[in-house]
Hints:
InterPro entries: YjbR/MT2646/Rv2570-like. By secondary structure, this protein is α+β, with helices and mostly antiparallel strands. Helices cover 33% and strands 26% of the residues. It has a single domain, classed as Aspartate Aminotransferase, domain 1. A 6-stranded antiparallel β-sheet has the order 1-2-3-4-6-5. The longest helix has 15 residues, at 96-110.
Amino acid sequence: MADAEDVRRLALALPHVEEIDSEGFDFRVGGKGFVWSYPERQPGRPRVIRTDIAVLYVGDEAEKQALLLGEPERFFTTPAYDGLPLVMLRLAQVDVYRLEELVTDAWRMRAPESLVGDLDDAPAAEPR
């Protein structure tokens, strides 16, 4: 089972990552977000930042659909994310090793090409 601190540790272990000040977690590379806390919105209620759910950049609609259909216990979406290459991940439903794979893949898709090679030179995140 993973949590927000695992997201933070894994994201910050990647090169050139910037953490944006927020109520939860929000990480960017090259000015582009790749993983952040889910800002849950319900009609007529204030937005709630959910640190138990991560929003992940996945690259394209095909990958999004594969995750949603293949692992519905872990991944979901909402109408607000229709047409966007983003999925929500229930952190309690994933282990740290899978979370590392997902966060790293999101970083790779958002990092400028000039930075991607630096990933191979970065030290690995410490296992929990």
